[in-house]
Amino acid sequence: MSGLTVKDLVVDHGAITALNGISFTVEPGQLAAVIGSNGAGKTTLLRTLSGLKQASGGSAQWIGENILGKKPENLVRHGISHVSEGKSVIPELTVAENLALGGIWRKDKKDVAAVTKEVLELFPRLGERLSQRADTLSGGERQMLAVGRALISRPKLILLDEPSLGLAPLVIEQIFHTIDQLRHKLGLTIVLVEQNAMSALRIADIGIIINLGKIVATGTATELINNPALHAAYLGY
Amino acid sequence: MQQAINALLIGISNGFIYSLMALALVLVWRSTRVINFAQAGQAILSTYIAYEIVTRTDNFILAFIGGVIAGALVGAVVEILLMRTLFKHVSDGPVAALAPVIASLGLLGLIRSIIGMVWGNDQKPFFPPVSTNGFTFGSTTIPFSRMNLLIVLGAATVMIIFTLIFQKSNLGLALRAAAFQPEIARLAGVRVGAIRTIGWVFAGTAGAVAGILISPNDAITPYSLDSLLIFGFVAAVIGGLESLTGAVVGGLTLGIGLSFILTYIGTSLIFPATFVVLALVLLIRPQGLFGSKAARNA
Ligand SMILES: Nc1ncnc2c1ncn2[C@@H]1O[C@H](COP(=O)(O)OP(=O)(O)OP(=O)(O)O)[C@@H](O)[C@H]1O
Ligand SMILES: [Mg+2]
Question: Predicted ipTM?
Answer without folding.
Answer: 0.94
